[in-house]
Write a structure and sequence with these properties.
The complex is a heterodimer of chains A (about 350) and B (about 300).
Chain A lengths: L1 H28 L2 E6 L4 H15 L2 E5 L3 H9 L5 E4 L5 H7 L1 E15 L10 E2 L1 H9 L8 H6 L11 E5 L4 H13 L1 H6 L13 E4 L1 H11 L3 E6 H6 L3 E2 L1 E3 L5 E2 L3 H9 L25 E9 L5 H17 L1 H6 L3 E2 L2 H14 L1 E2 L2 E2 L3
Parallel strand pairs in A: 1-2, 1-3, 5-10, 6-7, 6-8
Antiparallel strand pairs in A: 3-12, 4-8, 4-9, 4-12, 4-13, 10-11, 14-15
Chain B lengths: L1 H41 L1 H7 L2 H4 L13 H32 L2 H16 L2 H28 L14 H25 L3 H9 L4 H30 L2 H6 L17 H8 L6 H36 L3
Helix pairs in contact in B: 1-12, 2-12, 4-7, 4-9, 4-11, 5-7, 6-7, 7-9, 8-9, 9-12, 11-12
Chain lengths: ~350, ~300
């Protein structure tokens, strides 16, 4: 017993030494960017961060805790930037003193589990998609679906809709689209990260992977996932009719078409939702993921470090984004974003960028 | 002198030992009290907004800021009830087989199996439930039930495999080892003299089981059942995987439903608005109260059973 007491100071010393060592290491590199938020762009942010750290020794610590969590964290000022799939309204940005800018574009894809139907062959109109999720169409061989798909042999299966159990930016984009194309959806459900789902036969999974698993396990299920998950899990995606009336399949090209038509120039606070965009080839459920930062930065060096990372990602991370099935921001838009950085983000009254 | 020193050390260490154990016991109570107070304080906002109607309102709509606990409470109670309905009789059969009928070697091996099942993490049950058992339910069991019972209210809707019934059965698998292990031990403790005299009077195995073993073991069976109930009602991961997470109250056992624990597990991380968070914490408080209530009732009941059965 006594021996332990004698050893105690020694142990304390050792612990202190270890602690000071690790903090010493930190101050030597001292280049960490802290961010938190959306899970939807997490794979590409992680890729960028990995490459960027190799090049510059600046480390990105990004916590994929969800869009809601990202907004909460930036409000609490515990991170250098927040990330959200749902853009904040200009007046909300103003109230908190934030700016937001789009970082990456991705697509949300309806996926189905219908035995005997080849991937990408089922066609859905916006009305059909809304009616399926409203519970108005209960069988897959409903006359309304057959009318659009005369060549397919649709099974006599009950419709089970799958949605996200957790609050989600993907849900926000999906329900935003349904609200735009279906007045009934807009009135009954509305859009948000966690709406009240009307269909009695609706199952919910946690995360994109949760939805993907439920769709794969339940015959007659329809769900919606971020495109990368549909590709990775080799899921049966559908063709959707876009605003121009054409049926399009979800591909990088149709996402790019939707993004190309986006008018960022005339969107104050970059508040622009890319659902139901015009254009003959536009995929209708496309969305940008946004970064949130304070206009008034306390430390110019920290802000500049964060912006330098985004600048690098915009300009050198494009191929990586495409490899992971995201659409990089067009350079024209990047220019616009960087002008906004210069105008809006300030430390001690001086612009931080460039 | 030496003697004196030794007694004083003894006094001192004994005092210290007493003090440490007292602190240990006090910490336990303190944690319970602190949890309760914290839950009440954090759920104040939701309680002020919705009042008691929070408990029976089935509306759960984060967009419009409308929260009601009814669907989650309903799912928790019904899934647990299904589990108890299956698990208690099954456990008694298993225990009787192990103690009364099986050869000792087989009994030992099955006993080891039961203990292994009890030690399995719940997420394993959840994953197995989702990937193996739910498709099996949807393909065979649910269509079978529908063909037997026709279109009754309990078995309505498409057989999707995920839902209240599947969650209840997965819970059954989870609590079965707990209840049967306790029941087996209780049956094992029935004095062989009593059983042997019953056999000696010409009683059959069934008669001995009914008149002696079950009567003797009833207290332990109920104790084991409440142990299982406690685990079933608070089970999170396994239920979240297979219950379907739908905020609706539907009489059909095939329909997706929700439980308090599943709601918390799914929605806590993304609940950014204060009211949303507060409503979730109030759900936690309700679970706390339900669990507390069950424990209290079980204790009182056990005491009464002990008295009326006259067994000790």
């Amino acid at each position: 017993m006594k021996r332990i007491f004698k050893l105690l100071p020694l142990m304390l010393l050792a612990a202190l030494a270890v602690a000071s060592c690790s903090s010493g290491n930190k101050s030597a590199q001292n280049a960490i960017i802290n961010g938190a938020g959306a899970t939807f762009p997490y794979p590409i942010y992680a890729q960028w961060a990995h490459k960027y750290q190799k090049l510059t020794h600046v480390r990105l610590n990004y916590q994929a805790i969800g869009s809601g969590g990202g907004i909460a964290q930036i409000k609490a000022k515990t991170v250098d930037f927040g990330a959200s799939d749902a853009p904040l309204k200009p007046q909300d940005l103003q109230a908190i003193g934030l700016i937001q800018f789009p970082m990456i574009i991705g697509g949300v894809v309806p996926v189905v589990n219908l035995p005997g139907i080849q991937p990408g062959t089922l066609k859905l109109t916006p009305e059909l998609l809304a009616d399926l999720y409203l519970g108005k169409i209960t069988k897959w061989n409903d006359a309304a679906i057959r009318a659009v798909n005369p060549d397919l042999k649709l099974p006599d299966l009950a419709v089970t809709t799958v949605h996200r159990a957790d609050g989600s930016g993907t849900t926000w984009i999906f329900t935003n689209y349904l609200s735009k194309v279906s007045p009934e959806w807009k009135e009954k459900v509305g859009f948000g990260k966690a709406p009240s789902w009307p269909h009695a036969n609706a199952v919910a999974g946690k995360g994109n992977e949760g939805v993907a698993v439920y769709v794969k396990k339940v015959n007659g299920a329809i769900g919606y996932v971020e495109f990368a998950y549909a590709v990775q899990n080799k899921m049966n995606y559908v063709q959707l009719q876009n605003a121009a009336g054409n049926f399009v399949a979800p591909t990088i090209e149709t996402f790019q078409a939707a993004a190309a038509n986006a008018d960022w120039q005339n969107a104050p606070g970059f508040y622009l939702v890319l659902t139901n965009q015009p254009g003959a080839d536009s995929w209708p459920i496309t969305g940008a993921s946004f970064i949130l930062m304070y206009k008034k930065q306390e430390k110019a060096a920290v802000a500049k470090r964060v912006l330098a990372f985004f600048d690098w990602a915009y300009k050198h991370g494009q191929q990586m984004a495409i490899d992971l099935h995201y659409v990089p921001m067009p350079l024209k838009t990047v220019q616009l974003v960087e002008e906004t950085w210069h105008k809006e983000i300030k430390a001690d009254g001086k612009p931080v960028w460039p | 002198m030496k003697l004196f020193r030794e007694t004083s050390t003894q006094n001192r260490t004994d005092g210290l030992f007493k003090f440490i154990t007292l602190i240990g016991a006090a910490i336990l109570l303190l944690i319970i009290a602190a949890l309760f107070v914290q839950l009440i304080r954090s759920s104040e906002l939701a309680f002020k907004t919705f009042g008691w109607s929070f408990i029976w309102s089935g509306e759960w709509n984060p967009i419009r800021g409308q929260f009601g606990a009814a669907s989650s409470i309903y799912g928790t109670l019904v899934s647990t009830a299904i589990a108890m309905l299956f698990a208690v009789p099954l456990s008694i059969f298993i225990a009787l087989f192990l103690v009364e009928l099986a050869p000792p070697t087989i009994s030992r091996w099955i006993g080891i199996g039961i203990e292994l099942l009890a030690a399995m993490p719940s997420i394993i049950y959840g994953m197995w439930g989702l990937f193996v058992f739910a498709p099996f339910m949807g393909k065979y069991i649910q269509p079978f039930l529908q063909s037997v019972f026709g279109n009754s209210v309990l078995f309505q809707g498409p057989p999707i495999g995920i839902g209240m019934l599947t969650a209840g059965i997965i819970l059954t698998f989870m609590i079965l080892p707990f209840i049967s292990a306790v029941t087996r031990d209780v049956f094992g403790m029935v004095p062989s003299v009593v059983k042997e005299s019953a056999y000696g009077m010409g009683a059959t195995t069934w008669e001995v089981t009914r008149q002696v073993t079950l009567r003797y073991g009833i207290r332990g069976i109920i104790g084991g059942a409440f142990l299982g109930l406690g685990r079933a009602i608070g089970e999170t991961m396994a239920v979240t995987f297979v219950i379907g997470n739908s905020h609706r109250i539907v009489p059909s056992l095939f329909a997706p439903a929700n439980s308090i624990t599943a709601t918390l597990a799914n929605e806590f991380a993304e609940a950014s608005e204060p009211l949303y968070l507060s409503a979730l914490i109030e759900l936690g408080l309700i679970l706390f109260v339900i669990t507390f209530f069950i424990q209290a009732v079980s204790q009182i009941w056990l005491k009464r059973v002990r008295k009326s059965m006259g067994v000790q």
